[in-house]
């Protein structure tokens, strides 16, 4: 995720405030702030301040996040509060009485962002597989039976991804609260910067394509297996009839000397 | 894997050598060697395996399945016709309907062409039924009534001819169809195109075990036969016998063929054969390439002189049947024939000649 041009690194480093190389006093750093019930955590730095600047040391702390891997962290400033965010680390600079609500908003946004990223990675893994599996959506044969379990697992995984996306949809598509609060506005700004609505829409389309493909494969496989069982039964009946006919023929031929 | 399947070449050569020795010794000297009855089942089993390899290769080269069927039918009918000609010219016209190996293989090709489209389970079912039904059919047909002094003796009636074709001839459809289908199924397991070498090795081991189990079952049935009473002994388990082909005999020979096939595949096809075997494989290739021709030829060279000499002596054609030569002379002749075949066919190599195989390809393909 990239910082929009208006909030580029140079702007942040601008000459308006004092650039401090040490962390401000009263800083609270939570190394493992819990994101949810699944045990996921993030590092959170809460700085109670009314100062309108984002100290260099704070920026440096967030930029040191290893999960960034080349991407810039996202900066949001709103009504004197600063949020400098990456998916593993976040610094919140705000008046003390607002820190708690902002902390909750950031944890929620991070949880949903990670979930969204995880679904995107899951979907990205499907495209090379779709190339080879799409053939089976048209024709399924004896040799494809070995791949049936694989296809089944892929369809199941696609459905799970779809369900996970549906579960976070209420957050991703949440309307603006009224009356607005600082927390709700920061949450809205986060959603906007992270483009959650458009990513949700794109993911929905991609997952529909994947589900449709594997749905067709499943249908073809099912049709083939049903037909195969039917054919086998037909063969067995034919063979039994042939055996009976054979016995009758031998009996007939030995009975009358043609 | 090579274009030629070395294990099949070797096994087919073994089958040919056994048949040549047995036929020379039996027909010229009246002596039946202990190896009698092992060559023909192997030959029939390999015909099924070869049909799978041939049809699979055709389909893999993009041939239309319908064209493969048409060529299969033509080849089957060609061999069926060649079998009749063989019977007329070798065994003389009165034995035209004795249903020898060639007519059986021709007919088996027609049947295999039908089961080519069926699943392995169906092929196995038909193969098992062909073996298990044959004692019942033999009993119903009165098998022994068709055989006199070890020879198939039929009346020239439609019912005798048809019963001979199905049950009572030298190589009737039942139970020999079981061996052809077994060969086809085994080859489809071992030479499946999409399988990995590891999977093929597993299949080979499984087949070898099945083969050994069938052979062991046959031995148990033969050994315990004296203790078997009633219908089972009189109709189903007749002991080790080629005429009529008993359940024990068929189980034993099919078990032997499956085991040899699996071992041959494992040691000759799946991995490079040892260089010391190059000479043997070269001989095997020459024999296997012209197996049908050698089968016809070996009858021609030892049966015709017998007939001709009989006529020249003013006797019946069969006067010197089984009494013409002492055993050692018949054995030497068999060796000389095999050496002659190797020299001629090795010299010819892959050149297209008008042998039976070349004629079949020219007419049918």
Structure description:
The complex is a heterodimer of chains A (258) and B (365). Chain A is an alpha+beta fold and 258 residues long. Helix content of chain A is 57%, strand content 12%. Chain A has 2 domains: 1-94, no CATH class; 99-231. Chain A has a 5-stranded mixed beta sheet with strand order 1-2-5-4-3, sandwiched between helices. The model of chain A is unreliable at 1-20 (pLDDT under 50). Chain B has one domain. Chain B has a two-stranded antiparallel ribbon. Chain B is globular, with a radius of gyration of 20 Å. The A-B interface holds A 142-143, 228, 231-232, 235-236, 239, 243, 246-247, 249-251, 253-254, 256-258 and B 118-119, 121-122, 125-126, 129, 133, 136-137, 140-142, 155, 157-160, 162-163, 166-167, 174, 194.
Quick description:
With 258 residues, chain A is of the alpha+beta class.
What kind of oligomer do you see?
heterodimer
Uncertain segments of chain A are 1-20
Largest sheet of chain A: 5 strands, mixed
Number of separate helices of chain A: 7
Radius of gyration of chain B from the CA trace? 20 Å
Largest interface: A-B, 19 and 24 residues
State the separation between the terminal residues of chain B, measured CA to CA: 24 Å
Q: Could you list some keywords that capture this structure?
A:
heterodimer; A: 258 residues; alpha+beta; 2 domains; 5-stranded mixed β-sheet; 7 helices; 5 strands; disordered N terminus; B: 365 residues; mainly alpha; two-stranded antiparallel sheet; 14 helices; 2 strands
């Amino acid at each position: 995720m990239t910082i929009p041009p208006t909030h580029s690194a140079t702007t942040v480093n601008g000459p308006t405030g004092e650039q401090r190389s040490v962390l401000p006093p009263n800083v609270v750093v939570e190394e493992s702030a819990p994101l949810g019930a699944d045990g996921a955590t993030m590092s959170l730095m809460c700085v109670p301040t009314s100062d309108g600047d984002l100290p260099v040391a704070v920026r440096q702390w967030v930029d040191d996040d290893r999960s960034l891997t080349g991407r810039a962290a996202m900066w949001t400033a709103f009504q004197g509060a600063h949020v400098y965010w990456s998916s593993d680390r976040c610094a919140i600079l705000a008046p003390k009485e607002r820190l708690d609500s902002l902390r909750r908003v950031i944890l929620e946004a991070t949880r949903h962002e990670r979930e969204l990223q995880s679904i995107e990675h899951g979907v990205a893994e499907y495209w090379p597989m779709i190339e080879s599996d799409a053939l089976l959506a048209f024709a399924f044969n004896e040799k494809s039976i070995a791949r049936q379990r694989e296809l089944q697992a892929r369809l199941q995984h696609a459905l799970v991804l779809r369900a996970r996306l549906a579960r976070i949809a209420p957050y991703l598509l949440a309307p603006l609260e009224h009356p607005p609060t600082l927390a709700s506005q920061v949450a809205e700004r986060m959603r906007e910067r992270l483009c959650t609505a458009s990513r949700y829409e794109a993911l929905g389309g991609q997952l529909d394509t994947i589900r449709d493909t594997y749905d067709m494969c499943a249908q073809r496989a099912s049709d083939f297996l049903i037909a195969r069982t039917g054919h086998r039964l037909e063969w067995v009946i034919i063979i039994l009839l042939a055996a009976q006919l054979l016995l009758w023929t031998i009996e007939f031929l030995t009975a009358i000397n043609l | 894997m090579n274009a030629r399947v070395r294990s099949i070449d070797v096994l087919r050569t073994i089958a040919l050598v056994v048949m040549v020795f047995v036929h020379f010794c039996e027909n010229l000297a009246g002596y039946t060697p202990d190896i009698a009855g092992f060559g023909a089942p192997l030959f029939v089993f390999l015909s099924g395996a070869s049909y799978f390899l041939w049809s699979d290769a055709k389909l893999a080269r993009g041939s239309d399945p319908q064209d493969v069927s048409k060529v299969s039918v033509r080849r089957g009918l060609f061999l069926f016709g060649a079998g009749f000609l063989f019977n007329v010219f070798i065994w003389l016209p009165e034995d035209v309907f004795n249903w020898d190996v060639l007519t059986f293989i021709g007919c088996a090709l027609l049947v295999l062409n039908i089961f080519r489209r069926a699943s392995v389970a169906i092929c196995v079912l038909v193969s098992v039924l062909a073996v298990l039904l044959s004692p019942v059919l033999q009993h119903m047909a009165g098998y022994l009534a068709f055989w006199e002094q070890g020879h198939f003796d039929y009346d020239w009636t439609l019912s005798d001819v048809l019963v001979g074709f199905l049950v009572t001839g030298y190589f009737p459809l039942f139970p020999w169809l079981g061996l052809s289908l077994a060969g086809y199924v085994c080859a489809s397991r071992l030479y499946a195109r999409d399988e990995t070498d590891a999977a093929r090795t597993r299949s080979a081991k499984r087949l070898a075990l099945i083969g050994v189990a069938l052979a062991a079952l046959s031995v148990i049935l033969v050994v315990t036969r004296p203790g078997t009473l009633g219908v089972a002994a009189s109709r189903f388990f007749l002991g080790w016998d080629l005429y009529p082909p008993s359940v024990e005999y068929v189980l034993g020979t099919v078990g032997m063929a499956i085991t040899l096939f699996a071992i041959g595949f494992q040691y000759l096809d799946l991995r490079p054969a040892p260089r010391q075997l190059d000479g043997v494989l070269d001989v095997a290739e020459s024999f296997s390439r012209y197996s049908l021709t050698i089968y016809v030829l070996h009858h021609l060279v030892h049966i015709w002189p017998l007939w001709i000499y009989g006529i020249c002596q003013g006797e019946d054609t069969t006067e010197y049947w089984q009494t013409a030569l002492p055993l050692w002379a018949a054995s030497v002749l068999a060796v000389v024939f095999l050496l002659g075949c190797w020299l001629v066919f090795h010299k010819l190599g892959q050149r297209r000649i008008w042998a039976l195989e070349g004629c079949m390809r020219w007419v049918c393909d």
